[in-house]
Write a sequence for this structure.
């Protein structure tokens, strides 16, 4: 698409994130996503199918569960790890748990059973409000951090250290806990917006602060992750702000599943990272990934969900359909996908769909008929358009074919 056809105010004063930045993704669908109280825990065969779709999307890391949560969680975690290693996937698994010795031991046991030292993600509450409720002191949290990270590191596990509710934690505690974790052997730290408190500016400020006041002074090579929740509807914006501030990896879940209103939606992370030029990969399986997770968890995808929803690239409005149809007639797929959409459908294996309903015009009918291999005779177009104007909804395929005097091809 020639640049002169779209003036991009998003980059008017320079791009927020420079193209070419290396950003990786950690998919939390099979751990944090399943903590959503409304979902069904999928069968192991369904989880394995989801794993393969993550691999097809180029996901870098995947959290495969909390083995300390019980016998089923342990069995599924082992089975998923074996599937990843047995299928020689590029994606790397990690396992999660609290900074409790029994949780860490469960993670160690999983690694021993599968014969691979997987990254161990360990969580610890840190904010003043949490400390008040739990009667914790910062010294207690520091000692817990040092002991648990050292326990996992001494067992040969790479450690991903997570402070919960980082976005509401005071700077002194942030520095104290992450610095202690790094000294004890953690080489990945996660900044968590556990209750969805952050704004994009807050996410940027926190990541920048941690890099400048913890990571750089440590003189160690430490990966900085952002883990967001969507309580204020800002999860995607916050993740992009975290990347702009220097985060190396961001976390997400399919369909934004997770506690309360959920995590950062992985689909929209992929969309935005692709449009920012930060990833360049085949994303044609993204809709299948989302629909497979929806089916496995008993989740309904709203029709207006961006990109993967039924209506994302679908219109029945006359003026929109007319413009799209004219773009197609010019033989320019990119033009057709850009004229009434900020997201090019073809980048995700999808296409524009024109329907016929009460807000439609002749262009809708003509385009629809031609798309279905039917010559748009004037009388047929008139009949269909009259029926559409008298309807309270879009017409079905069978109704249109009957009005056109044709049958399904």
């Amino acid at each position: 698409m020639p640049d002169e056809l779209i003036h991009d105010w998003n980059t008017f004063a320079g791009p927020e994130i420079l193209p070419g930045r290396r950003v990786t993704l950690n998919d939390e669908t099979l751990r944090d996503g399943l903590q959503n109280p409304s979902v069904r825990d999928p069968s192991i065969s369904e989880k394995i199918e989801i794993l393969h779709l993550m691999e097809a999307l180029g996901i870098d890391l995947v959290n495969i569960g909390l083995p300390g949560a019980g016998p089923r969680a342990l069995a599924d975690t082992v089975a998923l790890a074996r599937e990843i290693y047995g299928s020689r996937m590029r994606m790397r698994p990690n396992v999660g748990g609290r900074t409790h010795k029994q949780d860490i031991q469960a993670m160690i046991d999983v690694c021993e059973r599968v014969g691979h030292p997987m990254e161990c993600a360990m969580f610890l509450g840190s904010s003043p409000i949490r400390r008040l409720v739990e009667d914790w002191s910062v010294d207690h949290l520091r000692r817990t951090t040092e002991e648990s990270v050292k326990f996992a590191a001494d067992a040969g596990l790479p450690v991903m250290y997570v402070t919960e509710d980082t976005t509401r934690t005071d700077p002194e505690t942030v520095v104290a806990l992450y610095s202690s974790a790094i000294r004890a052997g953690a080489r990945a730290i996660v900044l968590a917006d556990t209750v969805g408190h952050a704004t994009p500016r807050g996410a940027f400020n926190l990541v920048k602060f941690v890099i400048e006041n913890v990571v750089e002074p440590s003189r160690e090579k430490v990966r900085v992750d952002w883990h967001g929740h969507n309580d204020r509807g800002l999860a995607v914006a916050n993740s992009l702000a975290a990347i702009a501030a220097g985060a190396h990896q961001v976390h997400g879940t399919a369909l934004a599943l997770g506690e309360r209103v959920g995590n950062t939606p992985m689909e929209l992370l992929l969309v935005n990272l692709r449009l920012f030029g930060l990833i360049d990969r085949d994303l044609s399986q993204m809709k299948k990934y989302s629909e497979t997770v929806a089916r496995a968890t008993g989740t309904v995808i709203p029709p207006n969900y961006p990109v993967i929803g039924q209506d994302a690239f679908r219109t029945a409005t006359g003026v929109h359909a007319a413009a799209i149809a004219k773009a197609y007639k010019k033989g320019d797929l990119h033009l057709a996908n850009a004229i009434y959409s900020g997201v090019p459908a073809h980048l995700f294996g999808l296409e524009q769909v024109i329907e016929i309903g009460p807000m439609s015009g002749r262009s809708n009918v003509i385009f629809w008929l031609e798309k279905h291999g039917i010559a748009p005779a004037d009388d047929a177009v008139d009949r269909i358009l009259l029926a559409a104007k008298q309807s309270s909804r879009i017409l079905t395929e069978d109704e249109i074919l009957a009005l056109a005097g044709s049958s399904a091809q």
